[in-house]
Amino acid sequence: NLIINNNKINLNNNNFNISYEEINYLEKFELDKFKELIPTTLNNEENKLLENFLQRNKKTFYIKGQNLTTTTCVKHKIITNSNKIIYCKNYRHPQILENEIEKQINEMLKENIIRPSKSPYNSPLWIVKKKSDNSNEKKWRLVIDFRRLNEITVDDKFPIPNIESLFDKLGKSQYFSSLDLAKGFHQVLMDDSDIEKTAFSTPMGHFEFIRMPFGLKNAPATFQRMLNYILSDYINKICIIYMDDILVFSTSLTEHLESLQKIFNKLNEFNLKVQIDKCKFLSKETSFLGHIITNAGIKPNPEKISIIKNLELPKTVKDIKSFLGLTGYYRKFIKNYSLVANPIIKYLKKNSKIDVNDKSYIESFEKLKNILVNPPLLRYPDFSKKFVLTTDASNVAIGAVLSQEGKPISYASRTLNGHEQNYSTLEKELLAIVWSVKYYRPYLYGRKFLVQTDHQPLKWLYSLKDPNSRIIRWKILLDGFYFDIEYIKGKENNVADFLSRVQLTQPPLAEVHSVEESLNNKFFMINKIVNKYRTQIRLVKNKHKEIETLFKKYKILYVSENDLNNTHYLNDVFRRELKNGKVGIYSELEDNKYDIIQNKLTQLFSNSNKISFIKCTKIARDVTSEESLLSIIDDIHTKGNHRGIHENYNELKDNYFNPKLIKLINRYCNNCRVCNENKYDRKPINKKFQHTITPEKPNQIIHIDIFQIQKNSFLTTIDKFTKLGTAHKLNDKNMVTVKTKIEERIAFLGKPDKIVMDNEFNNALIKLFCQENNIETHFTTPNSHTGNSDVERMHSTLLEHIRILKNAEKINDSEELVLKAINFYNNTIHSTTKLKPIDFINKINIDLNEVKERSETNKKKAIDRENIKRENLTLNLRNQNLYIKNPAAGRQKTAKRFNRYHYSNPNKVNTAQFRRPLKPIK
């Protein structure tokens, strides 16, 4: 009997509870996934038996959307050789990817992989692009950079099985199946005492891993230990395990299905799930640990020697020298090397003419190639000894050789594509290491090895200053491997050097470009408007014209959805209109439509290093009329209560575009009568400012003072970190009243760690209150306002607002004036934090570390700029409106600071009395 309730189907008397969504998935799972897993080489009997087995065990397969299971047979511990808390600054991420980060964090929270954290530890997070699948859907991977934590982690010396002994167990097996656990590491729980060490931060907050994350030093050893424990009854009998690879083998079909069932029963017993699309069943031949395993025996993977076997006969002296450099490196292992190589060496003599039909020359070349790719020179790997990976890069290719005790195990090389050829020397040499480490992963993963390179700067790979995003990604990819880098001289690097100069028509593996999991080198993405680029491509649904020229020098190419299918048209337009420089691209179409344009531009300009493409996430309205733009500026300036040039520009820059926008804002603000009459002239020459400590969080330090206007007093406070200001009306200046207002502020915004205040607050009641609440106090030097400059600076801004409100809006009530002024202040983007103070209350995803870094940088720039000796004031005063200091301003705080006069004779003006123009922005 079925009972349908709340979108669930419950089957009476059975342990069965599944949603409609899961039923739909399982139906699709049965129809599609099973067919994909069944090899086309199977006969009808094998096909039917395998399909029945998969149907019978479908509960062992991980279904996307379900919570990932965990096993309790082992927990991962992080044992460190130091009690040092590892805290690293976060990396900056493109704002366009913040939604993707939030999405993946929510998924991991839902699956109980992570949880919110209060840990003092922090490792930085990075996001890299995955390889595109058949759907061309963009996918991203979150990566935690645990390098600093791994440096102090004690090695787990869990024994790794000998590969030769593993192969001995395969015997005359006829069937092979390889299994892969779903998100394998995430099915292992972290030890409770070590969870805090895995903490990381995102704009959403601070989190830590409940399950074992990728990137931890000893994670592979823990994973192997777990599999060895679970499958201990079957290892070397019906399966072999190497790191995260499970290979099931049998001599007959019936035996193989029984063996698979035993393995699946064990996985079910320990609550583990299998990733169905990464498994291979009933193969007659499979690749495992760099070897090809068949029912006829084991043979080396031909890919590791194909580079040498496919070498062409040298036709120039340069080619001969290069080939002899390769073979000569191994001459001590080649019997009678000089005799064998002599038919080639003879052509190095002066005035010798190379005869490519010379039989002895050809035989010598083929014999040396044959020696290089066969025993005894080409050896089998000995996993009890250290591997040496030697790499090199040229302008056209990268090469590597894996060896032990001077003898090669495998050769590898591939040609660089167009954008890779534009990499710097350091990037090419590092690409050679990253690609070859991934290529030889079965040999190198989980053990320490040596990397040899003739590029000396790579010795200090992990201490490079200001690495670009590509190098950061590659460093994180290498973090799962353990190796030392050794510098060798170029003349000692003959083999890898030779391989790096071999140009192939096709790369040896389909995965060769997987190390570059990001945008093409010619393409960049920024969170800014496209309008600022002189040449633009705009992808639109329907276009009103093909090409548009704005502001005389700005050219816009419109590409409609229909144009994407017209290859000849796109080729013609792009070749004709796109020249050197940066090209901005904005798309209002789906991402896969943009990918078509990106691929087309890559094909057309892959060989040019003089053009690049910037995908922009924003587009502004083009305002061609200066009159219309001035009207927009006037509207924003007036509604913002006459804020300054920077504030007006920040409000307008992402919504309206004109090349003269900054110039017009400068001109408008400097000619605004309200601003000139009521704002301070902030140009006094004082002694140089000193750099002060920047807080790390809100409420770490607040400044308080008393603000007086029209015989009314207000207790004002400002948070030194967020710049958030408050004002509380005082009925009197009694310290009991002041204490009450401080308590009001704490009730609303929280208790501060420290309060900075003038000496008028140096009172027993205030001191006792702070002492009882564990608040540190700092009283400024008497008769010095600079010690409490944050709140004094806010007061001056509040007075500007109040004067404007009083004279322009005719508001007289002091409480209304102060409250409106503080509201304008908190809703204006602050020049130090680049955020509105009110944002720290309204938003929860603000990265405090980023705000601190930005505040320190902006404050340092501002202080350094202000510390430069001021220039002499030189203005053309003839026939201009001048703003002269108002004598009443010193007596009345709300009076105009300046009065406007018109002078025809500048000699009558004392230049110390008039107002400077507002400082323009460039």
Automatic annotation (TrEMBL):
<dbReference type="InterPro" id="IPR041588">
    <property type="entry name" value="Integrase_H2C2"/>
</dbReference>
<dbReference type="Pfam" id="PF00078">
    <property type="entry name" value="RVT_1"/>
</dbReference>
<keyword id="KW-0548">Nucleotidyltransferase</keyword>
<dbReference type="InterPro" id="IPR001584">
    <property type="entry name" value="Integrase_cat-core"/>
</dbReference>
<dbReference type="GO" id="GO:0003964">
    <property type="term" value="F:RNA-directed DNA polymerase activity"/>
</dbReference>
<dbReference type="GO" id="GO:0003676">
    <property type="term" value="F:nucleic acid binding"/>
</dbReference>
<dbReference type="GO" id="GO:0015074">
    <property type="term" value="P:DNA integration"/>
</dbReference>
<keyword id="KW-0808">Transferase</keyword>
<keyword id="KW-0255">Endonuclease</keyword>
<dbReference type="Pfam" id="PF17921">
    <property type="entry name" value="Integrase_H2C2"/>
</dbReference>
<feature type="domain" description="Integrase catalytic">
    <location>
        <begin position="694"/>
        <end position="845"/>
    </location>
</feature>
<dbReference type="GO" id="GO:0008233">
    <property type="term" value="F:peptidase activity"/>
</dbReference>
<protein>
    <recommendedName>
        <fullName>RNA-directed DNA polymerase</fullName>
        <ecNumber>2.7.7.49</ecNumber>
    </recommendedName>
</protein>
<dbReference type="GO" id="GO:0004519">
    <property type="term" value="F:endonuclease activity"/>
</dbReference>
<keyword id="KW-0378">Hydrolase</keyword>
<dbReference type="InterPro" id="IPR043502">
    <property type="entry name" value="DNA/RNA_pol_sf"/>
</dbReference>
<dbReference type="InterPro" id="IPR012337">
    <property type="entry name" value="RNaseH-like_sf"/>
</dbReference>
<dbReference type="InterPro" id="IPR050951">
    <property type="entry name" value="Retrovirus_Pol_polyprotein"/>
</dbReference>
<dbReference type="Pfam" id="PF17917">
    <property type="entry name" value="RT_RNaseH"/>
</dbReference>
<dbReference type="GO" id="GO:0042575">
    <property type="term" value="C:DNA polymerase complex"/>
</dbReference>
<dbReference type="InterPro" id="IPR041373">
    <property type="entry name" value="RT_RNaseH"/>
</dbReference>
<keyword id="KW-0645">Protease</keyword>
<dbReference type="GO" id="GO:0006508">
    <property type="term" value="P:proteolysis"/>
</dbReference>
<keyword id="KW-0540">Nuclease</keyword>
<dbReference type="InterPro" id="IPR000477">
    <property type="entry name" value="RT_dom"/>
</dbReference>
<keyword id="KW-0695">RNA-directed DNA polymerase</keyword>
<feature type="domain" description="Reverse transcriptase">
    <location>
        <begin position="109"/>
        <end position="293"/>
    </location>
</feature>
<dbReference type="InterPro" id="IPR036397">
    <property type="entry name" value="RNaseH_sf"/>
</dbReference>
<dbReference type="InterPro" id="IPR043128">
    <property type="entry name" value="Rev_trsase/Diguanyl_cyclase"/>
</dbReference>
